[in-house]
Structure formats: structure tokens, C-alpha cells
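Before the break, one more example. Copy the sequence into your notebook; we will annotate it together after we see the structure.
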Amino acid sequence: MFQNKKEFFLKYYSLMTGLLVAAVYLLTMAPSVIQIDSGELASVQATLGIAHPTGYPLFTIIGYFFLKLPLPFTKIFQANLLALVWCTLGVLFFTKSAFIILSNIGFEIEPQKKKSKSINKSIVLESFEKNIFLITSAVLSGLILAFSKTYWSQSTSVEVYSLQIFLFALIIFSTLHAYYSEHKLVDWIWVALSLALGFSNHMTTLLTLPFVAILFFQKEKFNAQSIKKILLMVAVFFPLVITFYLYLPLRASSNPKINWGNPVNFENLFRHVSGKQYQVWLFASMDAAEKQLGYFLRNFASEFGYFGALLGLIGIFYVYKYMRKMFYALIATFIFSVMYSINYDIVDIDSYFLLAYIIFSFFAAFGILKNLLYLKHKFNTKTAIVTSIVISLFPLMLNFSNVDQSGVYTFEDYTKAVLNNTEKNSIIFSYQWDYLVSPSYYFQTVENFRKDVCVIDKELLRRSWYYNQLKRNHQDVLKTINSETNNFIESVLPFERDEKFDPNVIETSYRSVMTNLVAKNIEKRNFYIGLELLQNEMQRGEFTLPVGYQIIPHLLMFKVAKGNDYVSAPDPNFTIRFPSNRNKYIDFIETTVATMLTYRAAYELQFNKPERAKVYLDKVRKDFPNYQIPYDIENRIR
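Here is what the structure looks like once it is written out:
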């Protein structure tokens, strides 16, 4: 019976690893929308829309069909669950790949005790025990990767990177399978197919090309036969990629609710797929690259729970010593991935290092194997395995609280509170993309929550395609500023096409759009402005209200009002749940809500209404005890 258990482990080690990882991931998965693009991406999948550049057609199509499954969950929970599935499959294929590499080590696995150092290579391990050591190393390195901070965080909520993790692992697995096969053309065709799927999801697939190319030419050499294989791979690759990206113009032609970039023609499609909107942050400067590299290096050890990083460093030495060709493929891919990614000057850069973390985990597999052999030699097999398991679980213990999103309803509560505390058919003007705008996509388009409210992203108004989406979803709002929008689109198109443009004309017409958006809608619709506009654009004079209007702190937004008369606001009867696990996004919402309520209390005092002011300050004291209420306001209440 015990022998059968061992055989079961040998056969199903990757599946068992995946199930274990999935069980832990379920404990940390977000139940609702979280920060950044979560709301937008869930909406795109649910409505078969078009996501931000580069469009992610594979992610959208698979997600759409998955969300059609009649599961007893909300759509956002279901979308988050799919992210968990992709990350689990990534671990499964990683462990398979690690075992393939380890099982092809070109030396015997245990030092021979009684022979001289000059012939210190051994034969003592039985085949069964050898497999146990190799599989244990593959599984434990898979756990180190699975519970590394950035990898694990992709499993908690809907994101394109969770699917990309799986595709990275699939490309690596298919490449290794082809590399160690008997020169079968079909194996390289599978590599081409996996690459096509990768590029149909995310352009960071290009980071895998050094790995594929190095192993291909090491195996096939550079000759007429290998060139023929490359041409056949290309013949498979391009039609599949083109087929998936044809989704974008075909779907754009039906004008979906979320139609980022409106890639209805070749010009818009190329601009969208090439990610032109974000190219300003790519290869920005040496200073930016140095900053991102510093960030990568500072966080590297903690990613793997420190011990995982140490095992990887040990593994690098032994891969170089015993598998020189594989070392070149792995280290070149690692370096290329890091050097490319540090040249992207964005705040949420972590996910761009994912392939580097995956590659490093292969080195960790070798470190674990050497640790197993050393401990077996010093003690025994059982001690070696138990000790290695404990060391490999350090990332789980250290990173659990950092990635845990299981209690996060903050973004749902905040978005619903903002929408609910506006009158019917109101307009909200903000650029709180990470906290409000992106979540509102989901709740309005998927759950049909307060669809009457028109949420306008101030920064997206700088893009010509955005007016088409606004017109499709809120035609009456855009109709009032038709001439202003036409002028702006006409002035910004040369900029978007890399033609000669006048930045002053663009900025003037853009400001005209913002001002008239208020002026020509305020008589029919209540207009609300985010705190960030007051603190930035209004302070700098970049955004002004029509003559005779002012902003009033309402609850969570500023309300545009005519004249100087008192404007009432409802009681703060909303509830926002804040998790114990904090981050800068949660802190922003807490600070914003407390600040807005304090502004409202000051407004009440301005009109000699201390009892109304006390209502708002009591909410601050109760829900945000760490928020420092200004002394002059506290003193006037007393």
C-alpha cells in the first residue's frame, strides 16, 4: 500500500501540487473588485468588450465563455476565480518543466562516499529514490514560485497577467518538450502554437523568445533543415495571432459598451495593439531604468521568502556547472526579462518581472536538489525531505498577509457609496481610475447598479476614442458639447498620428471641453467633481467652473452649485469596509472619505449649523479614528 502511494505521487505530483496551491489561493482570493484595472477587465470579459491596450483578445474571449458558466457566484467572483485557475495551471506546468530539466542533469545524483575526490561522481541512489528527489525538487520549487509575492497576487483577482503566467509556463514546457524530443517537427509546431496564444494575450510574451531561440538552435543547429522548421512555425504562428486580433475590429464595429481605442479601422487597431498610448513610459530615461532596477533588487529576496532566493542563488552555480547549455538559455531569458522590464516607467511594475521570477524558480529547483543531497548525506532521506519542505514553505508564511485580498470589499463599498449619494442622471467627473472609475465600469455595466449616473474620466477625455464610448453610453451628455468635442478631436488627431500638432491648441480645446461639459449640462443634471480635481487642476487653473458656479463638499464628491446659498447634503449613512491588510490604495480611499466628510463639516459650520457638522465629524471619528481632524473645526464644534 505504501509503495502504491509513492507510485501515485510519482505519477500525479504536478496535479497534487496544483490542488494544494489552489486550496491556499482560495483563502486569499478577492470576493469583489479591487484596485486598478480589476473592474474594467471583469466588465470587458462579461460584456465581450475591448480592454485597454493592447486589447488582450484571448483573455477577453476565454473570460467571456467562462463567465457564461452557470456558477452560483457573482460575475466578479467568477472572474477572480478564473485568475486563480490560470495561476494554478501555471504552477502545474512549471513543476512539469522543472522535472524535465532536473531529470536531464548530465551527472550522477549523489557523491560517492568512498572514492577519491577526482572521481567524485556517484551511482548509489536507486532509480526510485532518484525520482523522488527530482520530483520533490520540482514540487518544492513550484511551491516557492506559487507563493512568491507577485506571482501569488495575480491569483487573487481578475487580471491579464494571470493568464499570461499560464502561457509563460506553457511556452517553457512545450519548448523543453521539443528540446528533449527526437527531432519531431510536431513538437516545435506546439511551441509555435503556445507562442501564438501568448502574443494573443500580452506582448510580454516576447520576453520568452531568448529561451525558445537558444534551445531551438542548440538542438536544431543553423542549417537548411532548421530554417525550414522556423518557416513552418511562422506559418502556424501568424495566422493564429491574426485570427485572435481580428476580434478587436470585428467587435468594435458593433460598438460595445466598453470600446477602448475604438479599433474599428486599421489606424485605430494599430494604435491600440501597439500600445501607443503607453509608449511614452517605455524606455523613458536611464534614471527611470535605474529606479526600477533598484526597486527590483530591493524586493527580490522578499519575493521568495528570502530562503527561496538563497536556494535560487545556489542553484545558479550548479546549473552552470552541470547543465551549461540550459544555464545559457535560463540566464539569458532572466537578464533579458529584467533589462526590458526596468525600462517601463510605471508604478505597478511588479507584474512585468513575472517571467524573471519564473525563470529564477528553475534555479531554485537545483538549489533544493543540492540541499536534499547534502542533507541525505549528513543525515537521512526523511530528514532531507522534511527540512527542504519547511524551507520551501517560507514564502507562504511570509507573504500570506501581504497578498491576502479575501476581506477586501473597500472598492465596491466606496464606488457604490459615491454612486448612491448622487441624484438620478447625475454626472461624476473624476480621474480616480484605480478606486472609482474602473470599479464603476463593473457595477454599472455588469450588475446594472446606478446605470443612470454618467461617470467621466477626466484623463481619458484627452483621447479621441473616448468620446465615441461616451456617446454610445451617454448620448445626451455628449450632445450638449458636440462642437467642443469635434474641435478637440480635430486638434488631437495629428498628435495621435505622430503628425505635426500644436500643443497649445490641443490644451485650449481640451479645457473648453471640460468647462462646457459643466456649463451645458448643469441645468439638467447634477454635476459632481472628485477631490483630486480640486487639489490639482483647479488649484493650477487648468479646470475652471462656469461663471457664477462654485463647488460644495457634498459627501464623497464636490457638487457644482449656482450662487452662494446653502446646499443641503444627506446624512453619511454609507458603510465602507476596510480590511486589516492595508495598502496605498486602501489608504487613499480612507483618507479621501475622511477628508470629504471633514470638508462637509466645515461647510456646515460656515452656515452656522454645528449640529449638522457634528453628524459628519461623528462619522469620521467612528469610522476613521486615526484621521486627524483639524483643530479649528474640532474647537468650533466644542
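The two ends are 77 Å apart (CA to CA). The longest strand covers residues 549-553. Try to locate both features in your own notes.
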